[in-house]
Amino acid sequence: MTAPLTPPPPPHEQSPHSQSPHSQSPHHAWQASPVPGQGAPAPYQAAYEASYGQDGPGMKTEVREAAVITAAVALAGVLLGVLWWWLAPHVPLIADDSAVYLKDTEGEQAIGVDGTFTLLALAFGAVSALVVFLVRRRGGVPLVVALAVGGLLGSLLAWRVGIWLGPTQDVVAHAKAVGKGVTFSAPLKLGAKGALLAWSVAGLVVHLGLTALFGPRDPDPYASPYGTPAPPAPPAG
After folding, report:
1. What is the DSSP letter of 180?
2. What gap in Å lies between CA 162 and CA 117, rounded to an integer?
3. In a 3-state reduction of DSSP, which class is residue 100?
4. How many Å apart are CA 121 and CA 77, to the nearest integer?
5. What spatial distance separates the first Cα and last Cα of the chain, rounded to whole Å?
6. Is the pLDDT of residue 54 over 50?
7. Is the pLDDT of residue 29 over 50?
8. Spatial strand order in the sheet of 184-185
């Protein structure tokens, strides 16, 4: 006489050791799914935090730095104005009993005044861009805007400082003071107003070039943390 067969236990009473890895319910699989940015390898986690967790504080820092750079670049216009007044050629004038005339009607001193300002502004723009790049190598839109605005303000300040340091703007009074037939210098005058943009243009071009050539590169958030995968094997032929 044989013993009756013991019926198998119900599915919900089976031992956890007897369950296969594929027998888990979809509910448990959904609970085990990772949250985006959590539980990922370190490179993915760092890229996730850099992309989504630091935009606010980073932008505030860049705006503060841009304000400081704008003020510093604009104040450098004082030095540009002094150099322009010192290096620009003098335009000679002479007066008689009726009017004031250019002593050398074919002279190019007036063009030299504009050229001196333009060359100095280009040099100041290149130097300011280099200094900003060395201080803040990552660049950014606020810094580029700061260079452009600061360069324009610095050029305007340099223009006014040079005029203030130069000969008086009252040519008639100056002619009466020196006397008839005596040569005197004309006031500084910037005939080509486009020279006021030279500083900003040079700063933008030099800064963008330095950033493109020597600036740090942002990590690729989609790059594999395990390196470049091997190429697929050629099909068996």
Report:
1. T
2. 10
3. strand
4. 9
5. 65
6. no
7. no
8. 100-102, 92-95, 184-185
Helix residue ranges per DSSP H, the chain:
26-31, 42-52, 55-75, 77-87, 109-135, 141-165, 171-178, 198-214
Determine the residue type at 102.
L
Which helix (H) or strand (E) element contains residue 8?
none
Q: What is the 3-state secondary structure (H, E, C) of 107-146?
A: CCHHHHHHHHHHHHHHHHHHHHHHHHHHHCCCCCHHHHHH
| pLDDT at residue 44 greater than cutoff 50 | no
How far apart, in whole angstroms, are the C-alpha atoms of residue 80 and residue 196? Answer: 12
Separation of alpha carbons 75 and 166, rounded Å: 19
Residue identified by tokens 């000679």 is 92
Q: Strand pairing partners for 94? A: 101
* CB distance 183 to 96 below 8 Å: no
Two tokens at 40?
């990922």
13: exposed, middle or buried (Cβ count in 10 Å: 0-12, 13-18, 19+): exposed
How far is it, in rounded angstroms, from Cα 74 to Cα 90?
Answer: 26
| Structure tokens belonging to residue 1 | 């006489």
Q: Residue 183 in contact with residue 103, Cβ under 8 Å?
A: yes
What percentage of the chain exceeds 90 in pLDDT?
36
Contact present, 144 and 207 (Cβ < 8 Å):
yes
What's at 11, amino acid-wise?
Answer: P
User: Rounded to 5 degrees, what are φ and ψ at 164?
Assistant: -65, -40
Distance CA 156, CA 74 (A): 9
